[in-house]
Amino acid sequence: MTTTNGFIENRLSRNKTLPDRIADKLRDAIINGQLKGGQQLKQDEIAKSFNASMIPVREALRILEAQGLVKFYANKGAVVNKFSVEEIEEIFDIRIMLEKGALELSINQLTEEELNYAEHLLKKMDALDEEEYLSDLNLKFHNVLYGAGKKEMLLELIREMHTKVERYMRIYLINLSSHPVSQEEHYMLLEACRNKDLDSAVEILTEHMSRAKRFLIEFLKSKSE
């Protein structure tokens, strides 16, 4: 059986609490697929890997539980959440509601500098084929479009939803060969934002995320057949 500590690099950032730093490394391992769905996370192995006590490890696992990446079971302890069609549907439905609202609040406040930076991010995405960096740039692109609304609580909720769906999005961006289609939609969304065309922007954004949801559901169902 694969052990947890074989996948964790013990190089921790200094500007966060120890539980946060442990959670960050475990989160990366889950999102990258190094820690698989259904795999037990043994707290003693994690503590040893990070040269830490059990207390910050338990706190780190609770952080991941709140982000939907880990579940606790009575007889097994912490276990990595398995991929779930139901979870995809719910997360994307929530994302669509939140991000439509954020775009409505932001679109008329977007500056030329912000729009040019969003285009710069898309051009960087054009040149990439690694899902980790694509996912990061994808979030940054959307954050630029939403950030002008200056609603920090809303932006934080969107970031939380992104964390919950990130491991699914990496499948979408690479395994389904959907990156070119996703990019085309990104450029259409950016153009609508430049034109301050809210109706078109909301329609494009909704279809953009609905397409990702449909493809991911089809992909997971095909894997379970």
Q: Please, could you describe this protein's structure?
A:
It comes from Alkaliphilus oremlandii (strain OhILAs) (Clostridium oremlandii (strain OhILAs)). One of its GO terms (molecular function) is DNA-binding transcription factor activity. This is Transcriptional regulator, GntR family. Pfam families: FCD, GntR. InterPro entries: GntR_C (IPR011711), TF_FadR/GntR_C (IPR008920), Tscrpt_reg_HTH_GntR (IPR000524), WH-like_DNA-bd_sf (IPR036388), WH_DNA-bd_sf (IPR036390). Strands 1-2 form a two-stranded antiparallel ribbon. It has helices at 18-31, 43-49, 54-66, 85-106, 112-126, 131-147, 152-175, 179-194, 198-224, and strands at residues 70-73, 77-80. It has nine helices and two strands; from the N terminus they run H-H-H-E-E-H-H-H-H-H-H. Mean pLDDT is 86; it is low at 8-13. The chain folds into two domains: 4-80, Winged helix-like DNA-binding domain superfamily/Winged helix DNA-binding domain (Arc Repressor Mutant, subunit A, Orthogonal Bundle), CATH 1.10.10.10; 85-224, Up-down Bundle (Four Helix Bundle (Hemerythrin (Met), subunit A)). With 225 residues, it is mainly alpha-helical.
